[in-house]
Design a protein that fits this description.
By secondary structure, the protein is of the alpha/beta class. The protein has helices at about 30-35, 55-60, 125-130, 135-145, 175-190, 210-220, 235-245, 280-295, 330-335, 350, 360-380, 400-420, 455-470; strands at about 50, 85, 100-105, 105-110, 115, 115-120, 150-155, 165-170, 170-175, 195-200, 260-265, 300, 345, 385-390, 425-430, 485, 495. It has a domain at about 30-300 and about 450-499: TIM Barrel (Alpha-Beta Barrel), CATH 3.20.20.80.
């Protein structure tokens, strides 16, 4: 997948980007279709404000954002994003405008500009893009999220075995599904949305590690556990071939495309058969080296949920429960691996703390985030992205839409506090966003922006804060600086410390 080539020379469907990608999906099952619920990396997008919006956006920064959505949400269905995007009629983005995201210390940067992320999960993009009757849903959701300023999307770039499989058997790929993934990448680029592509799923959704083990068993290997995925040489070979396999289609390889923010090794990886974490640690080290040997330019993240393990006993109390410390993952140790560029953490208080009062869950959210931001800064010296955060609003859930909005605001509040001091809290990705007409896929965490105007307003207000900071400050700048800049209409001076 990393080597896949793609080029969309036409933007009217089917513009298969001509995608000549010598690509072989960098890591299979990508987190249940990018973690089945799509709960993972970083894309750097330099958003340019439409003339006349700069001053209004700055004013919004000074508000709590609670009313900022009223006019914007009405644009979701019919209008293009308020921020200038690549011309949707076909013009490509110039190279100097669309560069790869890098890290510098505990921040993401594009050139000399900081890049703080407000994004979302949509694991299902490739699957719906396969069918012409549902392909338009990909464009629809990109239009809607762009309208509220979201700039990064985490999605599955795997589907192993089964229905609409990308990888039908080891190193055997379905051409039409590759074309669908190419379409997703090209549409993301058009709307200046960067992608975190997950390579395989820990869970059974979209194949996952269980499908790899099944393939090995079918080939005659005597494997007794799905966790043999992490140690069996044959199975590891399947995964490595998936990452490096060539699939020539067009002229641009995935490894050269700035649209891809990062690769994710696995969605919510766990190895419960080895609570010491040694087996999983060895796999992370081997696969991080392998991916970086193929694609040294893109960022790489592990895909972990953020649970602390044996290497940091003092932090075990930060976990949501005792079990979380015995699933084979170890936040500090896993992210010290050479080749891993930023840390990933998930936030699911309603699942992890089932039965706890809403107030207790929100208190946990704050302490959970602050612990990981502190460790990303002081121990790991890398950015941390909360690659999945969400709460269910299903009938029997403790949360409803109002509580969900409070939860989203709580997450944004912690991130904003970190960003204002140039901290390691680099962004968050909401789990998850759907377009209209896809209720059948909703796991209870889905947000349909045109129907969730309050949520859309909260997201939009946060995006505008990040947009102005990303566009006006250099990497070395902090929110406390007194640098003055003329507003776009020339009437006002804007101080960085009010952003």
């Amino acid at each position: 997948m990393v080597q896949c080539k793609h080029i969309y020379s036409s933007y009217t469907w089917p513009p298969y980007y001509s995608l000549t990608r010598s690509c072989c999906v960098i890591a299979t099952t990508m987190k249940t279709i990018f973690r089945e619920k799509a709960r993972g990396k970083v894309w750097m997008i330099q958003l340019i404000l439409v003339r006349g919006i700069a001053v209004a956006a700055t004013i919004l920064l000074l508000t709590d954002g609670s009313h900022a959505h009223v006019d914007r949400v009405e644009m979701l269905r019919d209008e293009l994003p308020p921020v200038q995007r690549p011309n949707v009629n076909g013009e490509m983005i110039r190279d100097e405008q669309w560069r790869m995201v890098k890290t510098r210390g505990s921040q993401f940067v594009i050139g000399d500009k900081p890049f703080y992320v407000n994004g979302f999960n949509a694991y299902w993009l490739m699957i719906l893009a396969v069918d012409p009757s549902t392909r338009g849903k990909v464009t629809e959701v990109f239009q809607q999220v762009a309208a509220v300023g979201l700039t990064v999307c985490r999605t599955w770039s795997f589907n192993d075995g089964g229905w609409r499989a990308l990888q039908k058997s080891p190193a055997v790929y379905e051409e039409n599904v590759f074309k669908a993934l190419d379409f997703v990448v090209s549409e993301a680029r058009k709307y200046r949305i960067r992608l975190i592509l997950s390579l395989i799923n820990n869970w059974d959704g979209y194949g996952g590690k269980a499908q790899y083990v099944k393939w090995a068993r079918d080939a005659g290997l005597n494997l007794t556990s799905d966790d043999d995925f992490f140690s069996d040489e044959t199975v590891k070979g399947y995964f490595k071939n998936h990452v490096k396999g060539e699939h020539v289609y067009t002229n641009v390889t995935y490894k050269d495309d700035p649209t891809i923010f990062a690769w994710e090794l696995m969605n919510e990886l766990r190895c419960t058969s080895d609570p010491t974490g040694n087996k999983l640690q060895a796999w992370i080290q081997e696969m991080a080296f392998h991916v970086k040997s193929i694609d040294p330019d893109h960022l790489l993240e592990v895909g972990a949920e953020g649970f602390y393990g044996p290497s940091s006993p003092a932090r075990l109390q930060a976990n949501p429960n005792t079990y979380a410390g015995h699933v084979g993952t170890d936040f500090i140790r896993n992210h010290r691996v050479l080749g891993v560029d930023f840390a990933s953490v998930h936030i699911y208080p309603d699942t992890w703390m089932s039965g706890a009062a809403v107030e207790a869950q929100l208190k946990f959210v704050q302490s959970w985030m602050q612990a990981h931001i502190a460790d990303a800064e002081g121990v790991l010296s890398m950015p941390v992205v909360f690659t999945e955060f969400g709460v269910s609003t299903k009938a029997r859930s403790a949360f409803n839409a109002t509580w969900r909005d409070q939860f989203v605001q709580a997450v944004y509040g912690v991130l904003l506090a970190s960003m204002r001091r140039g901290g390691a809290g680099a962004g968050g990705l909401l789990w998850q966003v759907f377009p209209e007409g896809t209720d059948y896929m909703d796991d209870g965490y889905g947000v349909v922006l045109p129907r969730a105007k309050d949520t859309a307003g909260i997201i939009s207000a946060h995006s505008k804060r990040l947009l102005i900071f990303n566009s006006r400050c250099a990497w070395s700048c902090r929110w406390g600086c007194k640098k003055e800049e003329q507003s776009e209409d020339g009437d006002d001076l804007l101080l960085h410390d009010v952003l």
